[in-house]
Amino acid sequence: MAIVTTPSLGGRDVAVYTKDLANSWGVGRKGINDGIVILIAPTERKVRISVGHGLEERLPNALCQQIIESEMLPSFRRQDYAKGLAAGADALIAHLR
Question: Any idea what DSSP says for residue 2?
Answer without folding.
Answer: E
